[in-house]
Amino acid sequence: MKNRFFSILLSALTLSGINISANAMSNFSDDISFYKVPLVCNAAPSIGCGSRSKPVLLDLEKSDVIKEAWLNRQGNVIAIVWTDNSSLTDRKNGVVAVFDNNHLNASELMMDDYTTNLDSFTEQAGWYRGDDVNALSKEEAGIIADQLITGIKVSSELKEADEAAFKKEIQDIFYSFFLNYKSMDQLADATIYKQKLGTIVKLGEKYVGEGNMPSVDELWKVCSGGTAGCNDASCNDSCKKTG
Question: pTM of the full predicted structure?
Answer without folding.
Answer: 0.81
